[in-house]
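Session log. Operator J.P. requested a structure for one protein chain; no other inputs attached. Running the standard single-chain path with token output.
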Amino acid sequence: DIAITHLNRWNLLFCHNPETSERRGTPVTLSSRSSVRGKCKKMLSSVVAAAALGLATGTPPQDDLVTLHGNVPVPRPHTINFDQSTNGYISDGGRDMYDSGNFIYTSYAVGIDNQLRPYTTNFDRVSQTMFGTGGWYQMNIANSSMLLFTRNSGTSNMQMWTNGNLGADGRGTRQQATYMSGSVRGFRRTICNADDPAVHHMYLTFGSSVNQTDSTSTDSDYHRLNNIPPDAFVLYFLYSSTDGYCGSTTEHTAVFTSLVTFYNAAAADPSDPSIGPHTPVS
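Structure written below.
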């Protein structure tokens, strides 16, 4: 017989011969050889995915996610003061980055006081119905960035956006850009070239109808991701650069590429049984 062992690390399926292989965990014998072959195929794709991401073994998944977050190359990083994390916004952020902004909303919880809160760390999973029935989010805060990862757990297309006011106060430059890697799409908004720290947003998700809209004013923090389909994962990344630095195309592309790596790893998180083994999209 072939046994299947459920590994703690990524909840991956590991196929082995119980008489010759070292056992880890509790083997579960399957009677159907075709079922075993299917499980082994899933295991192999997942093991290759984890190895390609350079993930450690024997550690909690969120530890790997924190490491991957730390690997995102923020251009000329500004240290953000997350001064209202409990209330779900940033009041100033340091050096007049904000005039109360980074309020995060979704179409499942419309209302000025229904922003996502609190900001959390270490990518611990937190239940939150603003992402749909049974919804959740994971978040981490670093010196110069915030990373939010979630999923549209509802049954209709979801919209997700930030709002509030920026310290640029109408000065400086507004930029938009889009990115693609396999089926993952990226959407960036930047407010820069003011005396204040530059504010960069980047969303990642999938779906052929997904698009972004934003305010044309550099005083506004409004940036919206539209038509996120049910079951789609979505990532929101806030990052900041010193002295209003806009960042180059190469630098922002490097941010996107690094976030795709994170996206793949987070989508393979075994704490949600419905996800299952995940093969990278790129």
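Operator note: The longest strand covers residues 173-181.
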